[in-house]
Prior knowledge:
The structure is a single chain. This protein is α+β, with helices and mostly antiparallel strands. It is 23% helix and 42% strand. It is built from 2 helices and 5 strands. Strands 1-2-3-5-4 form a 5-stranded mixed β-sheet, with helices on one face. Strand 4 (76-87) and strand 5 form a beta hairpin. The radius of gyration is 14 Å and the shape is globular.
Amino acid sequence: MIGWAALSPVSRRQVYAGVAEVSVYVDSGARGRGVGKELLEELIRRSEAAGLWTLQASIFPENVASCHLHELAGFRLLGRRHRIAQHHGVWRDTVIYERRSAVVG
């Protein structure tokens, strides 16, 4: 497997039924070959077909390639959450991106 993409609900509350968090992973040996772009574009297509109107992504700010990938796919930077995640026992910041569907909602 060279990559995967998934959607997760952001909340169990009904008012957020059309909002999901995006996860995209590409194996280090396959990066830079358009795999992430294809995965994210397909995820967007499927999310809209399923009636989702907003996608969110939480990314470590130093992951410039992932930030750029999401921006190319129509996500916009909302802001930074300070010390929100623990990664290998270290508190980390994340940046939040959001994409609103042009066809749903």
